[in-house]
Amino acid sequence: SHALIGISLLIILMILNKKWMLSRRVGIYIMLTLFSVFLILPSINYLVEKRFIMSKASHVFLMAHLADNGILDRFLQENCEEEEFKNCTLCEMKDSMPMDLSGFLWTSDVIEKSGGWEGSKEEYDKIINATLTRPDYLFANVFKSVSAGVQQLFRVEIGQGVSFMGEDSPPYGQIKKHLSKELINFRNSKQNQWQGMALKMEFINHLHKLLLISCLFIFLALRFSSLWALLDSATRNFVWFVLLAIIINSLVTGGLNTPNERFHARVVWMFPLSIIILLGKNYRVIYNHLASKLKKA
Prior knowledge:
Layout: H1 2-16, H2 24-35, H3 37-49, H4 58-68, H5 71-79, H6 89-92, H7 101-106, H8 110-113, H9 116-119, H10 121-133, H11 135-152, H12 170-178, H13 183-187, H14 202-223, H15 233-256, H16 261-268, H17 270-281, H18 283-296
Helix pairs in contact: 1-2, 1-15, 4-10, 10-11, 11-15, 15-16, 15-17
């Protein structure tokens, strides 16, 4: 997803072709760097697995995404009688499998019954390719992915996934095995005290949302006032760049996976940062403009 986010952002910037964004030469250098990911990752996998692939499990996550947005259920109900798909193991489970991403991946035995993380590739790829090549399913895929990306824009909560991790959790076992001296500290952390009840993030999330709303209000107030044209162009463009990057991050992560707070919280903080930079760089211009307005009033 990071490679796709970077490439999408760069392509849009090059299409806009503004001088403040990128020169053609710099754009080409960055593009080559981003596309090198599609050589480096398969090369690393080849050294380890002797297979030149980006990921061994991408087909599983894409199938879970189809389950989450409802396309998999529709496809199986409509196509399991076809000769091409009637022997698929997913067709045998179509009325009992979980139709959400986390359930498909982590809390059911669907993957194991359909061949495991690697053995399921042929069957999953066949269904995924069908949903991308048949126009009615392709349109549904695009619509659902864009809708999920828009939903992702509003998932800004901090701390998703930071919950109680008991003895049966993967982190506990790994810490006990490799960092046994830290196990007592891990068990006594706020994350684990009182079954995780000691770690509450409601207050910080209220402040976080208030900060984001305040920054959005400041941005809109400046953008639609005569003051906007007086501000330093570099900082104005930086704000636009950050907003564009945040939107692309939401569309890619929400569209390929499912809306999840941690995908957006990792980047949305850049918007308040850009507003702080904008105000800090232009405070004299803003102060003089407001003082002039007050004097006239």
